[in-house]
Amino acid sequence: MMTEEHAHPGPFTLAVCAEMVFRSLPFTERLKRITELGFVAEIWDWTKHDIPALARSGATFSSMTGYITGTLADDEGADELIRTARLSTTVAKELGCPRLNLHGTGLDGQGLPVLKSEGVTGAMWLKARDTLNRIADLGEEEGVTFVLENLNEAVDHPKTPFAKAADTIALVSAINRPSLKLNLDLYHAQIGEGNLIELCRRALPFIGEIQVADVPGRMEPGTGEINFPAIARALNAMGYTGVIGLEAWPAEDDELALSRFRQAFTL
To answer: CATH code at 256?
Structure first.
């Protein structure tokens, strides 16, 4: 099983999405800068990167996209999801990355669903559960954890099936296996549902990772309406000691954004 070191003195491991910070630098240099500042790193679509170069960067990887194409809730899409998830596990092993991220359906280059949904039927729920059981089998076989991320439909990902945190919690709790967890994204949840501390409490047994950005704007903590220090205190009181990942665009300076992120989750 892949493991990781805490990158921060405190209850949480702090991770930074390398796709969204230090964008003037080559990608491996972004990773080196994130590492120098004391964070672990997250990446998106691994097919867009030189994997051996990433492996040589010295970064510790927390999560990456766990599929290339595919969907949860139809036969052909499910088979494709499993096929590309298996390819992703090979890359995850090369990078030492313990978590592989999934969505309710494949997303295009603009973050829009490949298969748009006007509503999720009972048959789609049953097929999604079956697909995720297959994903959990693969995770157990390969020694990685797949994490299912909630999204928002109102701003970033309209007509995405299984987008709400309530949906991802329902699916992951129905599977209830250690190789399938939640990527609980609080930026998306604030837009779609709110009541974040109680949402964290409800999701806690199934959380594999938490991602954050402030609302509106998807920028770092302290730039919007979410009280991240209160969430940090609540998570600590709940006993959460896992990863908090910053998936945000810097409002001003990259290093300032990372400093604000660290401060918000320093107790």
So the answer is: 3.20.20.150
